[in-house]
Amino acid sequence: MSAANRSRRVKVITVTGGKGGVGKSSVSLNLAVALCRLNKHVMLFDADLGLANIDVMLGLKVDRNLGHVLRGECDLADIIKDGPQGLRIVPASSGLKEMAELSVDQHAGLIRAFSSLNEDIDFLIVDTAAGISDMVLSFCRAAQDVLMVVCNEPTSVADAYAQMKVLQNDYGVQKFKIVANQVHSLAEGKTMFAKLVAVTDRFLDVTLELVSCIPADPNMKRSIKQRSCVVDLYPQSPAAIAFRALASRALTWPLPEIAGGHLEFFVENLIAHGAED
Ligand SMILES: Nc1ncnc2c1ncn2[C@@H]1O[C@H](COP(=O)(O)OP(=O)(O)O)[C@@H](O)[C@H]1O
Ligand SMILES: [Mg+2]
Fold it and tell me: Are the CB atoms for 16 and 163 separated by under 8 Å?
């Protein structure tokens, strides 16, 4: 099928949360694989600058990344890797830094690279790095849905709040979907969410929705040790059940209505905004 025939609009979900270690990559990977298991075509964009992340989790051998594409050393299609269940993985790595500093010609080249990709994608999941760099914030602004992964620790809640504050003030993002990760009960997740809402309601103009409570589950680490993910390796584990529920829920989130809902428009959005800043 040619790129011009692509009919599907892509739903872009950026997974973020400010702090490192809260489970952004774990949520990205398991949500992505759970969506694949629902027969969706999913691409996972590994936007954790510097740290090889998803590829290490899955034991993939990545020798080239988006940086090589931007320097014209290879095509985008050459760097995309196959993950579990037909998942397509774009290792971005060092390319992200270059993406923030692209010339007009390079912008056009990158958009062309994505528009000529011969892939029909339903979901693009973007796994972001820790912190609130411009690139992380741009990925949040360009997505239709921002998933904030939050743990029940004061630093995680504070970081999520700080990130939502800048996203609202400087980037106009007002809707956040909260994933309470590593919780020991549903009640713990709900209480943490209520705490977060209490501060955002008071100081910000944002809407929060609790979309998932993922249990703390030793199978998460166990599956990564085996270079896999819980939804594949331990499908009956509490975390896998929660990820499957999250994926089913994500199917109901509305698609972008505009005609420009394809992959290349996400990239265009991402870098066009970046250039204005
Ligand atoms: N629900 C969970 N239960 C148990 N361990 C988890 C859970 N979510 C993540 N972890 C573990 O926490 C660590 C950090 O997760 P990771 O996804 O790499 O975080 P981040 O991408 O936010 O830095 C990993 O060892 C991972 O296996
Ligand atoms: Mg990570």
Answer: yes
The burial of 117, by beta-carbon neighbours within 10 Å (0-12 exposed, 13-18 middle, 19 or more buried), is given as: buried
Intra-chain end-to-end CA distance of the chain, in Å:
37
CATH of the domain at 85: 3.40.50.300
Q: Is residue 3 part of a domain?
A: no
Per-residue pLDDT of the chain (277 residues; tens, 9 = 90+): 444 445 678 888 999 998 889 999 999 999 999 999 999 999 999 987 666 689 889 999 888 888 888 888 998 899 999 999 999 999 877 666 677 677 777 777 777 777 778 788 899 999 998 888 887 888 898 888 999 999 999 999 999 999 999 999 999 999 999 999 999 999 999 999 999 999 999 999 999 999 999 999 999 999 999 999 999 999 999 999 999 999 999 999 988 766 556 777 777 777 766 554 4
Q: How many domains does the chain have?
A: 1
Domain interval for residue 156: 8-276
Ligand 1 binding pocket includes 6 (Cβ within 6 Å): no
Cβ of 238 closer than 6 Å to ligand 1, yes or no, is: no
Residue 2 lies in a domain: no
CA-to-CA distance for 241 and 142, rounded, in angstroms?
29
Q: Assess if residue 183 is contained within a domain.
A: yes
- Ligand 1 centroid vs 122 CA: distance in angstroms? 25
